[in-house]
Design brief:
The chain has 133 residues and is mainly α. 52% of the residues lie in helices and 0% in strands. The protein has one domain. Helix 1 crosses helix 4. The longest helix is centred in the middle third of the chain and has 23 residues.
Length: 133
């Protein structure tokens, strides 16, 4: 595979996901055994969970779901997923978050699943540019 097709900054999200999965297969034992990686992963996971809790408590999650259902979810459009590099995807895999194999909905973010299934798993959205919020 050519470098621009695979790697943490591949041109496509599937290339980035493939790279993250490959790194996990090769290095998961080393990464899980490393104290600092574990500490930082837990801190990241705690911050991710807290951000989702706050989003839910102030109604952001509900507004995003409504926008997706009623207005087409403009901030969830195809291409937004390229804000995620392979390193962040690798961290998500380390945290046990299952990355999708394919885009569930044409024209939408790769990570937006059926009925926000991936969002419910706890992925924080990379798009924070919503004018409606």
């Amino acid at each position: 595979m050519r470098p621009e097709e695979d790697g943490p900054l591949a041109r496509t999200i599937t290339g980035r996901i493939e790279w993250a999965r490959k790194m996990f297969r090769i290095y998961h034992e080393t990464l899980r055994a490393d104290y600092e990686t574990g500490r930082l992963s837990l801190a990241f996971d705690g911050a991710r969970i807290e951000a989702l809790r706050v989003s839910d408590s102030i109604g952001v999650s509900a507004l995003c779901r409504m926008c997706d259902r009623e207005q087409g979810g403009s901030c969830c459009g195809a291409g937004i997923e390229l804000r995620y590099d392979g390193w962040l995807l690798l961290v998500n895999i380390l945290l046990g978050i299952e990355l999708p194999q394919n885009r569930a909905r044409p024209g939408s973010c790769f990570f937006l699943g059926k009925a926000d299934a991936f969002l419910r798993q706890g992925k924080c959205c990379a798009s924070t540019t919503c004018a409606g919020l």
